[in-house]
Design brief:
This protein is an alpha/beta fold. It has seven helices and nine strands; from the N terminus they run βαβαβαβαββαβαββα. The chain has one domain: Alpha-Beta Complex (Spore Coat Polysaccharide Biosynthesis Protein SpsA, Chain A).
Amino acid sequence: MENKIEYNKTDFLLSVVLPTYNEAENIIELIENILKFSSINTEIIVVDDNSPDKTWELVDNLKKENVRCIRRTTERGLASALARGIKESKGDYILWMDADLCMPPEKIPEFIDTIKTNAVVIGSRYVKGAKDNRALIRVITSRMINFFANFVLNFKIKDYDSGFIMVKKEVFDNISLNTSGYGEYCVKFLYDCTKKHFKIKEVPYYFTDRKKGQSKTTEHFYSLFTHGWKYGMAILKIRFGFKN
């Protein structure tokens, strides 16, 4: 039997950043699963935008030394929440993912193994062995966004708007996270990584619809069209400097 390596509480190897807004029904289960499946010393940073359902309070009540919550009362937004969590992280590797249980913490061991020989690991819905189990209209919208991103930017990445990413911390010495918009930050970040020639690997996973709580992205046609339009304009801006 191998001896388990013990780390000081400040010697985190993995930092998991979870941006949240009204995820009280999911956050505790997610935290427990992350800690269950992580094979290295891990801290979890929840960045909550002052959720009315008091997601932040549930996290604070856990009183775990390696789990903390940053409750933001004046600033809002997914990308800026991620940037805040990344800035305060202590790990050698940084993972971020959605807090709605749509992305499986069971993949964390594979991510950890993969990051050893790569700078960026993407949880991908569109490589061999992956599956997107959401409603058809959302799958079509995401597929169209990624097709357009591949056509305009490059074909090196299959899932440009993944949002399920592990990165070696030193990557952020060369690339900063765009804090404007919603998920468009992910497209720019991954494109910048390809331009800087960081080694990137996509790992397949099954993406599922949330079972509890309300989705931040509606399934109404007009809302999805607007969502896709914003991504499209962001992709053009990334590549050509077009203005939104």
